[in-house]
């Protein structure tokens, strides 16, 4: 409990995590440390799977609860890293969670923006994720951080179906893949390096858009 009190006292942030961020291995790659944490329960929310993705979402739902953890003493720069990692399909909300011994605290949580999204289904299992997907997910997270930490990297906004996501700004060179925004006002982005890997794109955009081989001349 001391870490929770310390976070409140030092103007640090507390973040409720319920999916891949419950794994210390993933958190360490993102923050270069593993903050103190406490088990926690978020009432009146449901954790569900997302079609085609290995990580979960939470949405408000009465009489349901989500077991997770609260990361304590998260700095503002670390919170911004988590914001970028989660991308804009998630919205950071303030929620109340129950800690051991029934202590209740206000924390941040990343909630799926569209509670009626037809891509959401069933329940998501952390133990199954650890066995089947964690190793690859840690590698993809490391690649994501390498891109973010490049000194000449920038973020820009790509729009699809009302959502925006940060992507790395790369100059174009021969032999790449053109990624289709998929809608009348969507964008096509020519990629040639790490963004040709579906694993990296999935981490950045939380999906893998349709793509086509392309060659850049001149």
Automatic annotation (TrEMBL):
Keywords, alphabetical: Acyltransferase, Transferase
Signal peptide annotation: none
Keyword flag Acyltransferase: yes
GO MF annotation list: acyltransferase activity
Top-level taxon of the source organism: Eukaryota
Gamma-glutamylcyclotransferase AIG2-like domain segment(s): 15-125
UniProt cross-references to InterPro entries, sorted A to Z: AIG2-like, AIG2-like_dom, GGCT-like, GGCT-like_sf
UniProt xrefs under Pfam families: GGACT (PF06094)
Function per UniProt: Putative gamma-glutamylcyclotransferase.
PANTHER family: AIG2-LIKE PROTEIN D
Family as reported in the entry's similarity comment: Belongs to the gamma-glutamylcyclotransferase family.
Protein's UniProt name: Putative gamma-glutamylcyclotransferase
Organism name: Linum tenue
